Amino acid sequence: MIHIHEHLKNPRLDSPLKRKLGTFVDLTDDELAMLTGLERGRLEIPARSDILRQGDPYEKVYMVKTGWAIRYKSLSDGRRQIVNFVLPGDFIGFNAAVFMVSDFSVTSTTAMTLSSFEPEIFLDIMAKFPKVCLAISWCHAQEDSVLREHLLSVGRRSAYERTAHLLVELWRRLTLLGLAEDEHFQLPITQEMLADALGLSTAHVNRMLQELRLDGLIALTTIPATKISISDSKGLEAAAGFTEGYLHFTEIPQRMADALDART
Amino acid sequence: MIHIHEHLKNPRLDSPLKRKLGTFVDLTDDELAMLTGLERGRLEIPARSDILRQGDPYEKVYMVKTGWAIRYKSLSDGRRQIVNFVLPGDFIGFNAAVFMVSDFSVTSTTAMTLSSFEPEIFLDIMAKFPKVCLAISWCHAQEDSVLREHLLSVGRRSAYERTAHLLVELWRRLTLLGLAEDEHFQLPITQEMLADALGLSTAHVNRMLQELRLDGLIALTTIPATKISISDSKGLEAAAGFTEGYLHFTEIPQRMADALDART
DNA sequence: CGTTACCTTGATATCGTTCAAGTACCGTGG
DNA sequence: CCACGGTACTTGAACGATATCAAGGTAACG
Question: What is the pTM of this model?
């Protein structure tokens, strides 16, 4: 396990992308230079605007530098399910490399800055930077793991457990990004979005938050922007049935690292 | 879109793996030979036995040649959520390449035959067979897409819609594999498993199946093994709100194919 | 031929939804 | 600076979808 603070302070890892990939593999100067080039294109997105829309064709791959977004699917009658929250260091629309049409939408919840690139780039990376390619696979696998955990939550955890679980997860992810101060953090999403992520109604999400508050597990400030303090992290994790294994904040297995070295 | 029957009859695509990858890219003789080598290792698994267990370390990657399995996550008190059904042509434990510990379990529901390989193999494939690597990425992306749709189902569809949706999905997938005869197919899973996949109780799954039957959408034979006939596929799809887009049964985008060609 | 695993069905309980009303804060235009 | 409209949050009451519990049925299996 990599020590977070050390990692965040490393001056060579000067972007979310580099920090993310650098969590799992050691990056050489060559690799870092390539990533710098990759991030040159910049894109500013205002809060609450669509980046990708379900059913639309798309061609670009984006990487979040700052800001939050939600990734969601909708039914024809408007019901919607948020499948995950997109934070700095996450990719958007990687599927462009293999699909022509998106099966989900992505909308910003805050202003964002993105870097964009052509999917073909990844063919080069695959050939020339196998280690980076492996680290990208790692990101995908991690995202999958989070998605499976969400399915477990929505399918089998009670509303109370589920709500607690999501809060712990976001807190952990933000902490790793250096975006949470100890036990409290900004939550730039509405309760309606929480509801759509949890498979609940907004009214019930509100009640669950009140209950968590009454139970002394969290403290809330909803205005101006929602801000949450984890008052009792152990208690909250217990209520959530949280185990962090699925987040896979680990380095790649030694055997893969060895195999990579042997190839060069 | 590739024509299924044509594809199934192609004698060069003589395994589920080749057929699967061959759906998205044209495979050369070299690539086919490599895949043949890859599948040499064989493994026989009896029905209802564990292939992978949540929390265990693991090192191998498997590919299903025949048989069904379920991939699921469990909570400490025994509640469980099936995240997807593993069919011929699917990979199991690909994460071994990037994680040391599995965050889910896989159990066979029928007898199975698997081929197994070391994760390091994929470093070679990445370097020497970029097209195959792209096709594998395709498989992953497709699996993700199915997972997101499951989350949408469990989070936002009613029990009735959800049940119908899963049946249509399985029917489509089996048809593509040549494992469904027109409108009917074997379903080698218990109602308890359906319940765990749908986030419902077994009693309620049973009621939903009865209702679908009464509505003239499906016909059931539960003994000896569950067998389902789709009596009214249009009606079932309508009840499910099914749109097949998310299954992404398409070839890779032309621009990626072109970029691949340009590289050789 | 008894035991087991699974399916089926009914009665009751409960969690979460829906609907409705009310509140608080924000940004905007006068 | 204030009035206003909008968006989100909050809370209660009634309802409903689904769970739970319980009992019984039936085919398969040793």
Answer: 0.96
